[in-house]
Inverse folding.
């Protein structure tokens, strides 16, 4: 069994792990399998979400308003005239709300369409801006730590490279002290990013619930449309949780990689 997991780990890393303990090997193998399983499940959810999104984007909403007009209406009625509503073709931002740029972004697919998908995305992202205005505590925390949430994981590899360069070029040491130090810093940022992702999900769900309330109380959506919105948002939430689980598994795997490297180096020395 250990050899089976060893083969999986060595295939993934591309080098031998003969000097690494069995417990680390088994752990790495199990984590890699879990990452593969969760990733496959996430892909299935993404496909279902894309189908639902496309289906609801072909169905005209009952108020015959575009995503842009819906967002503008909800923002203006809540004293947020200064928040802009912009079209986004970006894969990074997509349908989103930015506290820093004071804008609600809507994808091209929902921007000018009078669809149920437009109704869902425009209302939910506008409600994030409303939560921001109301000083929702979870929203305030999310805003403060936004840079770490989105860019923390991206800093991991650059920090390792910086640590290695300092050890090899500046310090000229084989102890790899700075490599370990900067790697630890990268892991901390990664962990903070994961923890804060939970806060992001919480605010997204709050905005979804607020959107239901606003649309229902103002007769901006039928019961059928509200049901469609709930289905769409549920898929988004599942996808987000999947991404969080994959991120956590990747974090654990990175830690195991570091342990494996340290064990290999220790044996070689």
């Amino acid at each position: 069994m250990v050899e089976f997991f060893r083969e999986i780990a060595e295939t993934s890393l591309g080098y031998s792990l003969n000097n690494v303990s069995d417990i680390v090997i088994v752990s790495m193998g199990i984590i890699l399998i879990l990452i593969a399983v969760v990733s496959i499940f996430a892909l299935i959810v993404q496909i279902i979400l894309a189908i639902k999104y496309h289906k609801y984007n072909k169905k005209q909403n009952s108020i015959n308003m575009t995503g842009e007009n819906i967002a503008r209406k909800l923002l203006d009625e809540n004293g947020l005239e200064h928040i802009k509503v912009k079209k986004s073709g970006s894969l990074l931002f997509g349908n989103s709300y930015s506290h820093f740029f004071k804008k609600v972004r809507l994808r091209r697919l929902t921007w000018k369409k009078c669809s149920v998908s437009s109704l869902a995305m425009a209302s939910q992202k506008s409600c994030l801006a409303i939560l921001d205005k109301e000083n929702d505590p979870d929203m305030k925390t999310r805003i403060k730590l936004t840079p770490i949430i989105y860019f923390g994981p991206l800093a991991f590899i650059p920090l390792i490279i910086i640590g290695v360069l300092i050890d090899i070029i500046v310090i000229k040491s084989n102890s790899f002290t700075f490599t370990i130090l900067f790697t630890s810093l990268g892991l901390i940022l990664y962990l903070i990013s994961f923890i804060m992702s939970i806060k992001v999900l919480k605010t997204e769900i709050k905005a979804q619930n607020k959107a239901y309330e606003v649309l229902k109380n103002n007769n901006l959506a039928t019961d059928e449309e509200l049901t469609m919105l709930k289905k769409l948002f549920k898929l988004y939430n599942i996808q987000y949780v999947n991404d969080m689980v994959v991120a956590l598994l990747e974090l654990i795997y990175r830690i195991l990689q570091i342990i494996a490297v340290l064990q290999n180096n220790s044996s070689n020395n």
Observations:
- The radius of gyration is 23 Å.
- The longest strand covers residues 84-88.
